[in-house]
Amino acid sequence: MIIVLKKSASEEQIRHIEEKIREWGLQPSISHGAEKTVIGVIGDEAVIRTKPLEVFPGVESVMTVLKPYKLASREFHHDNTSVTIAPVTAGCAPTVIGGRQIVVMAGPCSVESRESLFEISRCAQAGGAKIIRAGAFKPRTSPYAFQGLGRKGLEYLSEMRRELGIPIVTEVMDTRDVEMVAEFADVLQIGARNMQNFNLLKAVGKVKVPVLIKRGLSSTIQELLMSAEYVLSQGNPDVILCERGIRTFEPMTRNTLDLSAVPVIKRESHLPVIVDPSHATGHWDLIPSMSKAAVAAGADGLMLEIHPRPEEALSDGPQALLPDRYMNLMKELGTLASALGRSI
After folding, report:
1. Is 2-63's fold the same as 83-339's?
2. Would you write out the chain's pLDDT as a tens digit for each of its 344 residues?
3. Domain-wise residue ranges, the chain
4. The Cα angle at residue 43 between residues 37 and 49, in degrees rounded to 5
5. Is residue 127 exposed (0-12), middle (13-18) or buried (19+ Cβ within 10 Å)?
6. Among candidates 239, 192, 294, which has minimal Cα distance to 84?
7. Which fold, 2-63?
8. Looking at the domain 83-339, which fold is it?
């Protein structure tokens, strides 16, 4: 349910409505838009329907949210939401995802060593990336494959951030690790395999760190939005969605990149959406064209993998761009973004 407030509604009236909603065992969530302010009422629908929400002073109207994803829907929040990445390290400039700038997150698939992390991160930053992506914990199909460096990888990422002054995004896989990873990361990534790990979604929803949710291997767009709803419902408003390809019958690519998901998500939700063409295609030579297509489709950012020696990479070498190819792609993306009235 959504309570639409009058423009004349006072702060006292708003507080009174929020207090009464909490007294009823429901959860209020306020959204300030350019044209109107609304209060979302979250909880048991049977309880909500019995409450006289329209009688409160300052209320203009009451609407039912038809979508199963309430807080993530445009019905609740009409204007686009932007997520500000405020790094935990002093000296790092904030980065906004969901604005005019198309934010590129680039780096290695996984933290392999301190030396390689610094080498690749310097390259990513020099090319224009605003956030470094690298996994300290790696979910792998095979239990014998490289699983990441764990906490040591997080420490390397933290050291790199202090030296280069650039924020980091890294994956958290276990509810027991959320607080630890949140101490290091500027953005917590929920990987495709964990998109419907609801306990993990609830856990990251309780920390004050932005969350990036990757679409599951065989998940619908509605299921992705419902995963975002789990995080939003726990009080964390900073959610970024990521299209990274879905599993189909097509064997020529690692996954099938569903670029139609970008405009569909933007139609249905106010949350920013980025695209990961590296994991979507699995082949470095397909990344440039799919990156440009993602920008043309309206993506708010890209997630790219780079490696100077992909034949030696401990994970996902075939989809990693060589540094010179990455640099060329960033220049081309800058030209395309400018033509669309945006920037890289």
Report:
1. no
2. 888 898 888 889 999 999 989 988 888 888 887 777 888 888 777 788 888 888 889 998 888 877 889 899 998 888 899 999 987 665 677 899 999 999 999 999 999 999 999 999 999 999 999 999 999 987 666 775 666 788 999 999 999 999 999 999 999 999 999 999 999 999 999 999 999 999 999 999 999 999 999 999 999 999 999 999 999 999 999 999 999 999 999 999 999 999 999 999 999 999 999 999 999 999 999 999 999 999 999 999 999 999 999 998 888 889 999 999 999 999 999 999 999 999 99
3. 2-63, 83-339
4. 80
5. buried
6. 239
7. Alpha-Beta Plaits (3.30.70)
8. TIM Barrel (3.20.20)
Question: Which helix (H) or strand (E) element contains residue 189?
Answer: strand 187-190
Largest Cα span, the chain: 67
Q: What are φ and ψ of residue 324, in 5° steps?
A: -65, -35
Q: How far apart are the C-alpha atoms of 174 and 126, rounded to whole Å?
A: 33
In whole angstroms, give the CA distance from residue 186 to residue 85. 7
- Kind and range of the H or E element at 125? helix 114-127
d(CA 269, CA 80): 8
